[in-house]
Amino acid sequence: MFSLRYRRAASKSDKNHNDHNSPIPLYQYGHEDMQDDYDSKLKKQHANMDNQTGFTVQDYIQLVMVTILAASVRVWTLNPTQPISLSELEIVNQIDWYIQSKFFIGTSPPLAGLLYTKLAQLAGYTGNANLLFDGQSFGDFPAQPLRTFASILGVMMIPMGYTTIRLLGHSQLAAILVAGLLAIENGMVTQSQFFSSEGLVYALTAASMLSWAYVYKIQQRDSTKTSWTWQSLTGLLIGCAMSTKWQGICGFVIIWAATVRDTWKMLSEKNKAMSQILRHLSSRVVSIGALPVAVYLGVFYIHFQLVPNAGDHDLLISSKLKYSLEGNHFKGTYQEIPYGSRVVLKHVGTAGGYLNSHNARYATGSTQQIVSLYPFTDINNIWIIQKGTELWNSSQPFETVKTNDHIRLEHFVSKRKLHSHNHRPPMSSKKEHHEVTAYGDRHLRDNNDSWWARVLNKDDKIDPSDKTPIKALSSRLRLLHSRGCYLMSHNIALPAPALNQQEVSCMSSASKALSTFVIEAVYHEGLEGKPKISYSVPSFFEKLNEVHDIMANFPNVMHDRLATVPLAEAAKSKNGGSQRSTPLGYLLRARNTLIWDELSGRSVYMIFNLVIQRLVLFNFVAYGILLGFKCFAQKRQIQWSASNWSSNEGTMWSVHESNDHRDVVHGNSLEYFLAGSILYTIGLSLLPSHTQNMADLLPCIYLCIGATVLNIESLTNRLGRARLLVFLAVFGLAAHSFLSLSPLAYGTTPWTQDDCRASGLKSLDCLRFPSMTQIGSEIDSDSTQKRVVLVDVPGQRYPFDYVLGEEFDADKSIHELRSQRYTQEAEQATGVQRYHRATQTVGYTQEQNDEWADKINKAGLARVEAEIKKQNEKKKVETEKAAKEALKAEAEKGTKNPAEDSGKASVAEVQAEAKAKAKAEATKESHAQEVKEQVQEVEIKN
């Protein structure tokens, strides 16, 4: 029995046989009216397929069925009361900032935060959730509507996958298997339980693939036809995915790879005019090139408009951006910088803040006074610019500091000089780094206090002959030391007692980015009455560029005092830890990510369906072998096809399409999914590692499932009805794997260590699960079996011990412990202090500063007096020695005539002794007067 579709296709083939006097097959004979009726049905079918999706009633029924299956898997276990995850906590914080219009910077573009903020507001949320740590209950925050929305997105993946496969012309059986595997993929089920940016990127990427399938379907009819609607929708969805997380750009790459391939094929077709090809390519550039970029920029523009106020991240941004926010006030500063000015220098290359020195000494090295970068406004940030050869005082003429001038920087409070020497800094032990300290006092001169002010021009170069006056705010300054090194700083915190301030050193090979400062504030008596300048308002692209620089280097810039470990250390441990892998490792090996767990055995892990992972691996290997064999067959001129289309029931192809054409299109679909999954994996590997997690692989898993099913369909086409058994076997194995791991996806059924070991998952830490089969059951009251677990609290992992069998009580105690620790830390680290590494020093009063400066000054005066006294004693000794030598000479002269001059000699001795005494007294009085004058001179200068 042959279907009409096969009969029609076969009749065309047999007509060729008739031309060669071949016998006419029996199935070609039929009534003419039946043939006319068939042709009319065929034309109607073609008209429907050209204008609509080509779906049959059976397709719509199957769509409803797979959607119900997806909803039963995704929604029925939805539990809004389960603890908040870390990714959800980030979204909640962003929602609060948006509601309060506070400026902030996230790890990803802001579309997810914007969307969930709107949903939370529609649910009646007004802000201030006060959620501090993952594992905490939501309280008054409306978690249910947001998690429901995330689950609906998860449900929509299944009908989108089904529709995409059918639009590409493949069988209903293949589409059903794709939808079924998507429904029972454990990682996708887990992701749909939580609202996060990863789930939104997954949904938008899948939607863009569906939209592109419509474009592909239209292109199969006419390769030069432009579908502005579907192309624009594809570009819009890609732009939204990119605006949610940078991982969305991988979908952009996939679509453009397909576009380049299609354009290249069109160029090889001689019947296509170049004008048609250019018009077609131009439409792609506009719709899937410019439109996604415009959406991305538009999302950031909306973000900036919604957060105009000063926020908690103000210490991490440049002063220009900071003072453009409402609530931050910059009083302005004088532009000219004369000698004797009090100035504040801010580091340009990092968020460390201002050049600072406070009343603390290095514990190692020279043990001299610490110089660091400090983000808070403090009197210890003020320095006085002095000439390299003399100290300035108010009697000196007004003289501005010029480029390449020899200067010294004197700390305003302590009067110590910015100094560098051959000691190594505490954190940077390389030879090119030299320790920078505040050293000496006003009465001490040292060649290691000498610096040269070198200003970068517009080309980022230094002109040694330039003598242009240095300007506040605009001149980018580099300080060259007499040792040939530049003053610099980097994102490394100093140890105690520096209060986590940023290390400053002098480095011979310092980059311009890390050794550039700007003078932000200037004060001088001679400038009073002159106009002040201020920062200009940054443009949109200046804001965009700065925000992206911080996002790209987020762990090194951002610091959260409520985190267990600093973000930079957490990123490093993830990159090197056993639970962290490359995107390819996540894809091909069993890996997991812990979302939350309890001692009682309830836990949620992000983990992929093991059967699906192995099918994906098999698919890549099998396709590689088939592709190699195909290349070999072409080389040997053997007619062979990787996919046999002799049986096409349930496909959406036209009955007039040749088998060869169908084979080509099937190969194109398979290559599209395979190439897409490969490009997505490579793209993830190139993105910053701190932006990645296991959930970012979900779009790649989506593509891999499509490629795997298409390959299975290709390999089983000759099996007829037995193919259904293959599809059922594949789905059955995947369903068994899903059910065995479902407790980790839903977190409803407690697991024990035995369950963990029975799963065979080596990536799981089975010690995190309770060892008893009956959790919480009664045990011997005399039992002393205890277990110690590490609990995450701010700044550390706290060891917590409990008695086995009391897991439920231990979970409550741990929750209370964490709540207490996080609340205490949150009360101390509020606002901007929470998100910067440095701790603000205790505010010094004017009396304390004066006492500190007076102590240093007195020590300097004492040293000067001691030096003068030492010099005077040295002169006295020399004078007495000279007098003795003179007396000795006189005595030797007198001994030559003892008989005649005995009386004269005694008289001469007496006179010489008297003269020596008188001379010594005069010298003593002279030296005393000299000391008095020098001390008075020092006090006047001070």
UniProtKB/TrEMBL annotation:
GO cellular component, one term: endoplasmic reticulum membrane
SUPFAM superfamilies: MIR domain (SSF82109)
Location (main, coarse): endoplasmic reticulum
Membrane topology of the entry: Multi-pass membrane protein
Domain (MIR): residue spans on this chain: 334-388, 398-456
Bias type Basic and acidic residues, positions: 11-20, 872-903, 912-942
Molecular-function GO term, any one: dolichyl-phosphate-mannose-protein mannosyltransferase activity
Signal peptide start and end residues: none
Basic residues bias locations: 1-10
Enzyme Commission (EC) number: 2.4.1.109
Taxonomy, superkingdom: Eukaryota
Pathway where it operates: Protein modification; protein glycosylation
Reaction equations catalysed: a di-trans,poly-cis-dolichyl beta-D-mannosyl phosphate + L-threonyl-[protein] = 3-O-(alpha-D-mannosyl)-L-threonyl-[protein] + a di-trans,poly-cis-dolichyl phosphate + H(+); a di-trans,poly-cis-dolichyl beta-D-mannosyl phosphate + L-seryl-[protein] = 3-O-(alpha-D-mannosyl)-L-seryl-[protein] + a di-trans,poly-cis-dolichyl phosphate + H(+)
TM ranges: 171-188, 200-216, 281-304, 604-629, 724-746
Localization per Swiss-Prot or TrEMBL: Endoplasmic reticulum membrane
Disordered: annotated segments: 1-26, 872-942
Record's keyword terms, sorted: Endoplasmic reticulum, Glycosyltransferase, Membrane, Repeat, Transferase, Transmembrane, Transmembrane helix
InterPro entries: ArnT-like_N, MIR_dom_sf, MIR_motif, PMT-like
The family this protein is said to belong to: Belongs to the glycosyltransferase 39 family.
Protein known as: dolichyl-phosphate-mannose--protein mannosyltransferase
Native source organism of the sequence: Phycomyces blakesleeanus (strain ATCC 8743b / DSM 1359 / FGSC 10004 / NBRC 33097 / NRRL 1555)
